[in-house]
Amino acid sequence: MATRPRGSETRGSAEATDLCQVRAVHPEQVEAVRQSLLPLESAMRTAALFAVLNDPTRLQVLFALLHAPAGELCVCDLAAGLGRDDTTISHQLRVLRTQGIVSMRKVGRVVYYRLVDDHVRQLLELGLAHASEPAGGSPGTLSKVEVSA
Predict the structure, then answer these.
(1) pTM to 2 decimals?
(2) String of b and e for 115-136 (b: at least 16 CB within 10 Å)?
(3) How far apart are the first and last CA of the chain?
(4) CA-CA distances (angstroms) from residue 107 to 50, 55, 83, 113, 123?
(5) Is residue 23 within 8 Å of 4, Cβ to Cβ?
(6) Which of 13, 73, 94, 128 has the fewest Cβ atoms nearer than 10 Å?
(7) Distances in whole angstroms, Cα of residue 13 to Cα of each of 5, 17, 19, 78, 104
(8) CB neighbours of 99 closer than 8 A, spacing ≥ 6?
């Protein structure tokens, strides 16, 4: 293990608490990280998935589909249920379909959407459960998180 003390850089107090007080590299830990490194292509696909989910309207659409009694909803029912216009919901569904999160089927002039699989259902359920946990506050309190694009 190689160690050296950190310099007395001038950092904000929040940033300083996020760093080790001493730089200590543990070769066996570094090797474990390298062995389990997520390939860049997988990281990019996963980041794109989470980027698509980073929209309150799309999440409301997905949760409506998650709880749809028949497992699917038409655009008109989704729009009416969410209090939005059909074109807004249709646009969000197109984005979700492009990313492979929802699928559609046409019956005459009516278009129905559903979640593509159980992975999406589990992701939504786990995301909601995690967001409902306290993060240094009371349940249901969301802390502001900065996300860089």
Answers:
(1) 0.73
(2) beeeebeebbeeeeeeeeeeee
(3) 35
(4) 31, 28, 24, 11, 29
(5) yes
(6) 13
(7) 18, 6, 10, 46, 50
(8) 48, 49, 52
Residues 6+ apart with CB under 8 A from 136: 143
Distance between CA atoms of 100 and 94, rounded to whole angstroms? Answer: 10
pLDDT tens track, the chain, 149 positions = 665 555 555 555 656 678 888 888 899 989 998 999 999 999 999 999 999 999 999 999 999 999 999 999 999 999 999 999 999 999 999 999 999 999 999 999 999 999 999 999 999 999 999 999 987 555 555 555 444 43
Domain boundaries, the chain: 56-131
Q: Which CATH number fits domain 56-131: 1.10.10.60, 1.10.357.140, 1.25.40.10, 1.10.10.10?
A: 1.10.10.10
